[in-house]
């Protein structure tokens, strides 16, 4: 079983010009986040990012904590379902004004 997870990122991630360009309609009042998928559980995957194992540079350098409230209901998925759910959740959160990394 797989899940989709969301990680809160610190605002220093905004120094990444590419990330800013991917989020042109960002709401500065909403936090920066990372959306990913995993088969080992969100907290364990977050720790892997922080330890540098198969890490997103955004989470490794700027990850604060898992925001499970933004990914509630995105667990118990097949790999294929998780791939699609990750994309949909990232697009939905970006549409709500979050600055989103990952989600591909």
Strand content: 15-25%
Average pLDDT rating: 97
Task: Evaluate the radius of gyration.
Answer: 13 Å
The SSE order reads EHEHHEHE
Largest sheet: 4 strands, mixed
What global shape is seen? globular
What's the helix count? Answer: 4
Strand order of the largest sheet: 3-1-2-4
Distance between the termini: 19 Å
Number of strands: 4
Structural class: alpha+beta
Oligomeric state of the chains in view: single chain
Relative helix content: 25-40%
The residue ranges in which pLDDT falls below 50 over 5 or more consecutive positions are none
How are the SSEs placed, and which strands pair?
Elements lengths: L2 E7 L7 H5 L10 E7 L3 H10 L5 H6 E4 L12 H17 L3 E4 L2
Parallel strand pairs: 2-4
Antiparallel strand pairs: 1-2, 1-3
Q: Would you kindly provide a written description of the structure presented here, covering whatever features stand out?
A:
By secondary structure, this protein is α+β, with helices and mostly antiparallel strands. 37% of the residues lie in helices and 21% in strands. The protein has 4 helices and 4 strands. A 4-stranded mixed sheet has the order 3-1-2-4, with helices on both faces. The longest helix is centred in the C-terminal third of the chain and has 17 residues, at 79-95.
């Amino acid at each position: 079983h797989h899940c989709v997870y969301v990680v809160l990122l610190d605002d220093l991630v905004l120094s990444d010009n590419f990330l800013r360009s991917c989020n042109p309609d960002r709401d500065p009042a909403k936090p920066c986040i990372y959306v990913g998928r995993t088969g080992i559980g969100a907290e364990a995957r977050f720790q892997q990012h922080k330890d540098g194992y198969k890490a997103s540079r955004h989470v490794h350098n700027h990850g604060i904590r898992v925001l499970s409230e933004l990914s509630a209901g995105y667990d118990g998925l097949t790999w294929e379902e998780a791939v699609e759910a990750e994309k949909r959740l990232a697009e939905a959160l970006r549409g709500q004004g979050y600055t989103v990394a990952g989600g591909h």
